[in-house]
Design brief:
Blueprint (H helix, E strand, L loop, with lengths): L4 E5 L6 H15 L7 E5 L5 H7 L5 E5 L16 H5 L5 E4 L2 H6 L4 H13 L3 E6 L3 H5 L3 H13 L4 H4 L3 E4 L13 H19 L1 H6 L2 E4 L7 H5 L6 E4 L6 H8 L3
Parallel strand pairs: 1-2, 1-8, 2-3, 3-4, 4-5, 5-6, 6-7, 7-8
Helix pairs in contact: 5-7
This protein binds phosphoenolpyruvate.
């Protein structure tokens, strides 16, 4: 079933103590509130277990920001989907543009990560989005369609139903340059149409599609009021409760 979701991506920010403080502050701020969306926080790997045991994970889901493309074994420095699941994290952000650009994650690698995440009961928050040159060349629809096709369209309809998508135009991430509500709606509707053509209307309608890219307390309401925008993946504005809470409450 399609849900409204506000997910924070802390990226490589906050040491363990700072991260625990932020998670506990958010937990306290949400206590007793009835929310109109699910809330998720994507922490660095080493924070996952401590954060998950310090908060009410029924109210705030915990996400990793990546997982290995191998199940286990001699892959020094990697963290497997199984390890993530063992911390009580329930989500994993995959395909973020920073991982695609700086760590050379290809559609094929991401396909493996998605399969391992699903096999270990994690919900992938799968990021897609075009760079500025692609938008200027009016290739943004083709780019996003091929990202979805290349890493996700191998899934059965049942498994695809477990995926959350995040449309993040790369030119809007961390730049203060948000996509307009109309640009977001146009792309989200296109993505839903692409899903419907492959998996049928029900799967397409049940898929949550989040917007990411300089979303904040002042633009969240307008972005979320679009029929095909089911929430946000939030970077910078997830690093303080004062900025994150108003986005959650924009629903
Ligand atoms: C992100 O990193 O996913 C993101 C959307 O960042 P920001 O909100 O800072 O643009």
């Amino acid at each position: 079933m399609r849900k409204n979701i506000v997910a924070g991506n802390w990226k490589m920010n906050k040491n363990l103590q700072e991260g625990l403080t932020l998670a506990k502050e958010l937990d306290a701020a949400l206590k007793g509130k009835t929310l109109k969306c699910d809330v998720v926080i994507g922490t660095p790997f080493i924070h996952l277990a401590s954060v998950a045991s310090a908060i009410d994970t029924k109210k705030i889901g915990v996400a990793a920001q990546n997982c290995a493309d191998k199940a286990s074994g001699a892959y020094t420095g990697e963290v497997s989907a199984e390890m993530i699941a063992s911390t009580d994290a329930k989500y994993v952000i995959l395909g973020h543009s920073e991982r695609r650009a700086y760590y050379h994650e290809t559609p094929e690698i991401l396909k493996e990560k998605v399969l391992l995440a699903l096999a270990n009961g994690l919900t992938p928050i799968f990021c897609i989005g075009e760079v500025l040159a692609e938008r200027e060349a009016e290739k943004h629809f083709d780019v996003v369609k091929s990202q979805v096709e290349a890493s996700l369209f191998n899934l059965s309809a049942e498994d695809f139903g477990k995926i959350i998508l995040a449309y993040e135009p790369v030119w809007a991430i961390g730049t203060g340059k948000t996509a307009t509500a109309a640009q977001a709606q146009e792309m989200h509707a296109f993505i839903r149409k692409t899903l419907a053509a492959k998996y049928g209307e029900k799967v397409a309608n049940d898929t949550s599609i989040l917007y990411g890219g300089s979303a904040n307390a002042s633009n969240a309401k307008e972005l979320f009021s679009n029929p095909d925008v089911d929430g946000g993946l939030i970077g910078g504005a997830a690093l303080g409760v004062d900025k994150f809470l108003p986005i959650i409450e924009a629903f």
